[in-house]
Structures are given as C-alpha cells and as structure tokens.
Amino acid sequence: YSILLSYFVVILLLVFMTEVSVVVLGYVYRAKVEKEVNVSIKKVFDEYNGTNSNAQSNLDISFFPQQLQCCGIHNYSYWQNTRWYEHSKNNSAPISCCNNNFGVPCTTSMDHPINRLIHIYKGCETMVMKKLKEIMMYVIWTALTFAAIQMLGMLCARVVLCRRPRGPAYERLITGGTYA
Hints:
With about 180 residues, the protein is mainly alpha-helical.
C-alpha cells in the first residue's frame, strides 16, 4: 500500500518536472518560434501570385485576412512588392483583404484603400503573432492548473504516507491467555 503510494508520488513528481521543463523551454525559445513563424508567413505571402497551383499557399492567403481581419504582412501596401501585384497588374490586393463587416461590395484597389473597405492598417504578421501569443497563454494557464492539481495530489499522498502508523499492519489480540 505505502510502496504504491510512494510510486504515485514519484510519477507525479516526474510529470510535474516535465511540465516545468516544457514551460521553461517554451519561454526560452519563444523568440526563435516567433522568428520561424514570421519567416513562414513571409514565404507564403511572397509565393502567392493568385494562380499558384500550391493549394496550401492559396488557402493560407484566404484564411489569414478573412479570419484575422488583416491584409499583407505589415499592411495592405505590402502587396505592391509581391508576385501577386506583378501578376495581377491591376494595382490591387487580393479580394481576401476585403472587410466584409459592412455588407457592401468591396474592391481592393490600392488607389483609395480607405474608400474600398479593405483592412488597411492591420498586417497579418502582427495578427498571427497576437493569436499565437493568445493560444500560448491558454496553454501556459492549462499547464499551471494541471501543475497545481499535481502538487495537491503529491501533498495529499505525502500526508497519507506520513500519518500512517509505522507498526505492523495488524496486532494480535490476547484474550484470557489465549490468542484470538
């Protein structure tokens, strides 16, 4: 009984130490993760030309602006330095940059972006990083909650182990000179 409870405490301690290590490593390498995400986003935007056969690139370009309400990497004018701009030859950003919250037709012309209802000020790089940090906060809080529960489990197990009598598991009863 006590040996199994001791194993339980040791296993909880190992899992707890693993969680702490993961949180520390995540904190230490967060800058590298941010850099890799930024490089990936830039690569996706730079490869997009509107007619790519690369379905992943087309999906990403449609997803980022629509879900995160952004346009380009830093803002809408980023598109002027891409293959999309050279290929489209119409001085516009992709239609996924449209802000559909107003329920009116949208064009993505860069001549008068404020009048065309596109997401002009929010770049997708910033919005992706913001979303990533938000998700990481959920992960960290979940890990901390599990760590607190594990600490409580270890504490309870230690209390049970410490309060348990050290003598034999049972005592002989002697009644009237005979053993019962």
